[in-house]
Amino acid sequence: MPTDLTAIDAARRWAGGEARGAGIAEAAVADLEVAMTEALSNVVRHAHAEHATVTLTAGDSMHLVVEDDGSGAKHFAREGGHGVANLVERARQLGGTASVGAVTPHGTRVDWRVPLAPAG
Fold first, then answer.
1. Helix and strand counts by DSSP (H, E) for the chain
2. Residue 79: what pLDDT?
3. Is the pTM higher than 0.85?
4. b/e per residue, 62-80, with b = 16+ CB within 10 A?
5. pLDDT tens digits, one per residue of 106-115
């Protein structure tokens, strides 16, 4: 899979401009970048995927979905890895949720959602 970090670049531009301009908390923006980087890093390094899709929506919550067509969620359970635990903890600290699961017929879906609150 070619490494195309356009999604990360787009999220960084959004986080650096529109999100902060809309008063979205700095912590949520920083954690979004970390969550997206972690999810895409796992796709590139472990999933052996041909395609990955990144969807980012914002309304009452910021919702990130990264889905690939690779080897499945087992690559997230690698011994010694802390990626999933970090994704879940970062979302929890912001009052949100995160999950990693299998996609049928093969692949992985990372679902990361945090409520949006004005920066304070």
1. 4, 4
2. 47
3. no
4. bbbebbbbbebbebbeeee
5. 899 999 999 8
